[in-house]
Amino acid sequence: MTPTPARLDLAAIRSHFPSLSTGTAHFDGPGGTQTPDVVARAIHDTLVAPLSNRGSLTEAERNADLAVVRGRAALADLLGADPSGIVFGRSMTQLTMDFARTLAKRWGPGDEVVVTRLDHDANVRSWVLAARHVGATVRFADFDPETGELDPAEIARHLSPATRLVAVTAASNLIGTMPDVRAIADLVHAAGAQLFVDGVHYAAHAVVDVAAMGADYFACSPYKFLGPHCGAIHGRAELLEELEPDKLLPSPDRVPERFELGTLPYELLAGTAAAVDFLASLAPSPGTSRRERLVATMTALEAHEERLRDRIERAVLGLPGVTVHSRAARRTPTLLMTFAGSEPRAVQAFLAEHRINAPAGSFYAYEAARRLGLGEAGGLRIGLAPYVDDEDVDRLVEALRHFPFPRR
Ligand SMILES: Cc1ncc(COP(=O)(O)O)c(C=O)c1O
After folding, report:
1. Are residues 83 and 25 in the same domain?
2. Is 7 in a helix, a strand, or coil?
């Protein structure tokens, strides 16, 4: 029997977020979460302590080194991964562009790459551009706009002995769909190709286990899960060893440093470790390791967010002329909606007047928004984060009830 997930102490969690004292309810987590005091403090403390470049001789060197070692270890615990496969960078987009260029060095005409229309453009265009540069072919796998599902069989349809890589999201930042990545990984590997998984939206809402998922590469961004603005990719160490990214001559050639151009943002790595430690502290857990505590927190968070999503969804479905585009069987608590006769931007502005942040747009899910027939305007996106509570949901539901939707 699966144990009942622990309940989260929302008041205690919220007390760690200084920005919540403004009274704004934040349903904009999928764009970036609010920052806990412990994360801001770790960034501050790293910057005001002696700090230089990595080394072992001086305190300043050791502090820089420790920030990197701890940052990698923390993220590895969150992803169920090996710290030596964690590559840090400015953002998921920057890292994915870099990895795409590096991987493409081994492709040429006749090779194929598969991307999906469900993905954020960072996991589409990076591959399209890299493939174009070397004359490789890109194939687009589609999702069903009616159900929001991305069927592994649709990926299979595009696989062949020519396939070198498949890039797929673990969760759509637009409509929340969580495709069956494990099933996709099995198909991709059976075809002799590699799998690059965009976990930016997924990692904020679910337990990640990169090996169980079958991800050869897994990308995420700490600022989506209470951390600072940076990005990371986990690559299987043996794959990273084979790759030859463009790099400076004197910079380290070992993995993962080989992929990290220039000086790392030590303070952001310290902030990332603090965010992971904070997450690990949220749910009471009998586990002793940080990984076990993270699994307990993410399991509790999934249950909490599922309950709030259900409350919001029920209320929203009663609004006149609403279409909820988030429909997949397995999905994050991210609801994209449009309203007959009202622009999503107008609803966003109305909510903002009530100090409720829920943005409108297509959120760089360029292909997905078009496939849904929404274009650039997209929809209103309501997303959850660990600090969103029932009172926030009450306020959101109440405000939406007062929006002057045209009666049909
Ligand atoms: C699913 C998804 N992938 C990729 C990205 C890009 O991440 P970054 O801002 O770290 O480049 C985002 C950002 O919103 C996202 O939601």
Report:
1. no
2. coil
Three-class secondary structure of residue 43 per DSSP: helix
**For residue range 18-77, what is the model confidence (pLDDT) as tens digits?**
999 999 999 999 999 999 999 999 999 999 999 999 999 999 999 999 999 999 999 999
One-letter amino acid at 7 equals R
Residue type (1 letter), 89: G
User: What residue numbers bound the domain in which 194 lies?
Assistant: 40-278
Q: Where are the beta strands (DSSP E) in 227-330?
A: 231-235, 322-324
Question: Distance between CA 296 and CA 315 in Å, rounded?
Answer: 29
Q: How far is the CA of 172 from the centre of ligand 1 (A)?
A: 10
Q: Judge if 25 and 91 occupy the same domain.
A: no
Q: What is the pTM of this model?
A: 0.98
Give the C-alpha separation, 234 to 290, whole Å: 18
Mutate which of 90, 92, 331 for ligand 1? The one with the most ligand atoms within 8 Å of its CB, which is: 92
For residue 367, how far is its CA from the centre of ligand 1 (angstroms)? 14
- Tell me the C-alpha distance between 261 and 392, whole Å: 41
